[in-house]
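Entry type: protein chain
Record version: 2
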Amino acid sequence: MTFGGKPIPEGGYIVALQNGKKIALAQQRHRVIQAKIAGRSEAETAEQEGVAQYTIWKDIRTYLGEVRREDKEAVQAEYDLQRARYERLLLRWWDNAIGEDSDHAARSTWIVLDILRRLDTIGGLIPEKPLIQLQQQNVMADGVTFADLLREAMDGAGA
């Protein structure tokens, strides 16, 4: 097989195809980002590109991750803005949450807790993925499982 009159080395055709796919994906990502900047929804962009909406979401998230790694000042400015917004909301709901016991106070408490969780998340106190993965193992000793022992210990702690 030849390309431009020159023979393509064995496997060279596959590399050319892979490079072509990478270029096409990079062009698609560029169009997706331009659509996002223009204010189009992910659903509209997915329909226009002929891909799943998840693909659009993933492209945008990947791009933003790349930008964040490269532009620390922009990340800090974005963080400061988000934090200020959350703090204003927190101030708005705080007095209601710690006020007299009522349905409104209960609802306000849930809102305050959600805002605090979001502040912890953007501040890095809550990781995106759990630091520890626990898996249940039914380890049995003398006919008693670990889960039974744990349940018994928890019942004893509450008594």
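Comment: The helical segments are 12-37, 42-49, 53-70, 72-98, 103-122, 146-158.
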